Predict the 3D structure of the following.
Amino acid sequence: MSEAIFPILMSGGGGSRLWPLSRGEAPKQLLRLVGEGTLLQQTALRALDTSLFEPLTVIAGEKQREPLVKQLAEIGAGEATIVLEPMARNTAAAAAVAALLVQAQSPDGLLLLMPADHLIADAEAFRRTVRAAAKTARDGYLTLFGIKPDSPATGYGYIRGGARLRPDAPARAVAAFVEKPDRETAVAYMESGEYLWNSGIFLLPAAAFLAELKAFEPDLLSAAAEALQRATRDRGALRLDPEAFARCRSVAIDYAVMERTEKAAVIPADFSWTDVGSWSALWSIAERDEAENATVGDVLTWATRSSYVRSDGPLVATLGVEDLVVVATKDAVLVARKDHDQDVRKIVDFLHESQAQAKKDRDTVA
Amino acid sequence: MSEAIFPILMSGGGGSRLWPLSRGEAPKQLLRLVGEGTLLQQTALRALDTSLFEPLTVIAGEKQREPLVKQLAEIGAGEATIVLEPMARNTAAAAAVAALLVQAQSPDGLLLLMPADHLIADAEAFRRTVRAAAKTARDGYLTLFGIKPDSPATGYGYIRGGARLRPDAPARAVAAFVEKPDRETAVAYMESGEYLWNSGIFLLPAAAFLAELKAFEPDLLSAAAEALQRATRDRGALRLDPEAFARCRSVAIDYAVMERTEKAAVIPADFSWTDVGSWSALWSIAERDEAENATVGDVLTWATRSSYVRSDGPLVATLGVEDLVVVATKDAVLVARKDHDQDVRKIVDFLHESQAQAKKDRDTVA
């Protein structure tokens, strides 16, 4: 079992930029947004190949449990291990718990960390990249999947690739992590050919990752270990101890480990990828009519161009508009200019603050 | 009683350009859109002054009966005569019925025809204009209320004023009726000072109007007379005979009589007026915030300018948009560019056609 790959599905995110469809109890990974099934189901299906993968583990928020169990059963992944987070603590804590679980089963095991809300159309290409990354991970590298940019995106972090680590594998050392760039910088990155998008997908040797965590985030690691030790079984799921888990620093794996370790590697991914991070991202990958509109549900577009118009409830009619995102549910409607839709999060934050202040029972809306 | 003025409220319109709020069973005159009460209530209140007016008569579609009775009672106009049209037949037929009713009570009576969906803020100024118009109407003129344009509107018909009819009254002969102009023509009309908007409000001597109808539309008049003769009393309302009323040509009073008679006069009105014909018209008269947005209901505007955003149901959030109309009800949402909102009617027509074709029971939506 020295080469065992344990797929870990991270389903902790809220996806607030896809409000009003994506909500606390129905975050975007649990929604049918594009293609067959939900994003979570599509992600799980990519990692069900038993010739390559150990059984699936899903780390998710408490609130998601019911739909999660249902959706896993629908695709024949009902045997997946479910780890419930009593509160959101970002990706470093989830990765720590996962690494501890993997190490307990297989000291030399690798964990494949996959956010549950990414869209990757070509599952076979994804698995080819996993196989290639495994060679690098087995050498002890914390291996990140880098995506070749097909546009100068400003919504992703970038990685500059360094020297090849072995002549027989495509992985490279990480020369630099760079934050989301402005448009001009993104164009330069893309033209240079030296940069890849940081996908947030990782293949990590459990032992090496835990060693780095111990060096950089010892408190986080010990709190995560305690949360796991004191975890309770609940109808087949593992519920992390709330008190201990709450003590984990809420930090992304990138900041906690990847940007600090000497052992970071990046493998160029052989597939097209999007994090479905916004309605405009969804528009860009959706099927569109001759006026460049993507429509879903009971929608009527009139003199409308280049817009994403979706209804999960009322009839929506648009007239004489362009470059808009219009999303309607039974209790909320978003109308945003497509190039402003990263700010949807601000609306959600504002609603949460208003709710907190008013102490009103409006949790269903935001 | 030779000077009796009978106010006639015409509530037959559907107001489809205010979809999705205005529907078959809730046309715009029955909605609270601006100011206190509904447009119908505001119109009725202008004509309840017993020192000037005889009791009110309301001509309305069968479907509107229940809300109409309720709304009239709310403002103390429960004694109004209600005439129910079994089907829509435009304004000439309604005016014919009204003139016959007035003549039966007062052979020299004047009828004041008022569409129920116009907004006139200054009721006292309105009554001043009625008094001034009465002098002209008593001379036998079919007197139309003309509004001094305060913008080069392209959504209204215009009237060119001719010679003064009497030295002691402001009314003029009508030199010409002109159709809705294009922008350039409207600017020229406005600058010339010779043109007035055709408000659709008329003060007519019953006898003279019926004589002209007999000359120009004898079939319409005899069908209207028959519809009234065979009308039935129904819980205090007068229901016109469906078979006879159906035979009335569906034509506006303007085309049927006003543009053909030698007895047309126009009185410059002394009040500001709008027909609330579109959402953008409503925006222009609404109170607006510092970003020029008018909002109604559960609405959140963010980086939004010069827009009308209204909800009668769901939470509506706008982000990074301008010059939009966004109107949401519990089952339908409109998103239109403000300068396209005259075309809302096309959406409603399309929905009606789709419904007719599909023979589906979706009448509640359009």
Observations:
- The two ends of chain A are 45 Å apart (CA to CA).
- The mean pLDDT of chain A is 92.
